[in-house]
Write a structure and sequence with these properties.
By secondary structure, this protein is an alpha+beta fold. The chain folds into 2 domains: 185 residues, Aminohydrolase, N-terminal nucleophile (Ntn) domain (Glutamine Phosphoribosylpyrophosphate, subunit 1, domain 1); 99 residues, no CATH class. It is built from 10 helices and 10 strands. The strands form 2 sheets. A 6-stranded antiparallel β-sheet has the order 7-8-1-2-9-10, with helices on one face. Strand 1 and strand 2 form a beta hairpin. The longest helix has 26 residues. The termini are far apart. The mean pLDDT is 94.
């Protein structure tokens, strides 16, 4: 057995379920967080038994409360003293277990709809610091989870150092559109500062959320709202961090609605990131993404290449 996880947060804020985790272990996001919209959220860590994740979700799905689920998972587990698990059910009830033989420093702190848990910490104050930071934080659940992880790092974090991190946020109430129920599903598999990299990815994801909102506004004919959403997307993804993707598709969406002049600044921003974007424009008419209008294509290409 090896301890594959160090500290995590499980939370239900009324609208969303979330798990965030950091570890000195490769790809911790593939092992610790288990979530399902409308069902609950689970973190399985310390000497990890990944079978407890899907098994726990099955029990939650049947309507079993968090405490009963945790008891069922540990009842016949000969290595329960090595386990650390946290569960929040759809009613915001929390149950957490820190086995007596988890490597010190190890412990957990349960609050209103959330639990913080940690093992292999440098100091025995990490999980309390996480809980305090989470409760004091402002913003949506993803932001509060990140603040909790950052507090753990500031308190000393894992005695071994750091390597990977993950953050998952799903809808507390499942909808008829499953894809919309997964708001954040992000992993940092191997990085010298995984929590900082996770925050960068969360901001990038926020940019894409705004980009999709803009596209939906375009489809609904509300170009003013679309422009506002596209600008918000650019705020989350500044040029120095961008790869051109958000800027390019923002410009293309505006161009398809007859707003070529508004589209060109976005397209030029994309072209400044990578010269391949300009060669892509003529190909979009083939798939109907741009109108089959050579004049429009020429205008966009010329504008992207204009250095003035």
């Amino acid at each position: 057995m090896r301890p594959v996880s160090t500290y995590s947060i499980v939370a239900h804020d009324g609208d969303w379920l979330g798990v965030a985790v950091q570890s000195h272990w490769f790809s911790v996001g593939s092992l610790v967080p288990w979530l399902e919209p409308g069902v609950g959220a689970i973190a399985i860590q310390s000497f990890n038994n990944p079978e407890h994740g899907p098994a726990g979700l099955d029990l939650l799905r049947s309507g079993m409360p968090a405490a009963s689920v945790l008891e069922a998972l540990l009842e016949d587990d000969p290595e329960r003293d090595y386990r650390q698990s946290a569960i929040v059910d759809i009613n915001r009830t929390v149950a957490t277990h820190t086995g007596a033989r988890c490597i010190p420093e190890a412990g957990h702190s349960i609050g209103d709809g959330f639990s913080t848990q940690a093992n292999l910490m440098d100091r025995g104050t990490v999980w309390t610091a996480m809980a305090d930071a989470f409760m004091a934080a402002r913003g949506d659940l993803a932001e509060r989870l990140l603040v909790g992880l950052e507090a753990a790092e500031a308190e000393g974090g894992d005695i071994r150092g750091r390597q990977s991190a993950a953050l998952v946020v799903v809808a507390a109430e499942a909808s008829a559109t499953p894809g919309a129920d997964w708001l954040f599903d992000l992993r940092v598999e191997d990085h010298p500062d995984p929590v900082a990299e996770l925050r960068r990815l969360v901001d990038l994801r926020r940019g894409y959320i705004e980009l999709i909102k803009g596209d939906n506004h375009v489809s609904g004919g509300d170009l003013e709202a679309a422009a506002a959403a596209y600008e918000a997307a650019m705020d989350f993804v500044p040029d120095e961090l961008a790869n051109g993707e958000a800027a390019f598709w923002t410009g293309i969406s505006l161009a398809t609605e007859g707003k070529a002049a508004d589209a060109l600044p976005y397209l030029k921003r994309a072209q400044a990131q990578h010269e391949g974007w300009v060669r892509l424009v003529p190909r979009l008419a083939h798939s109907g993404i741009l109108p089959d209008d050579p004049g429009l294509v020429d205008l966009l290409v010329a504008g992207m290449l204009d250095d003035s």
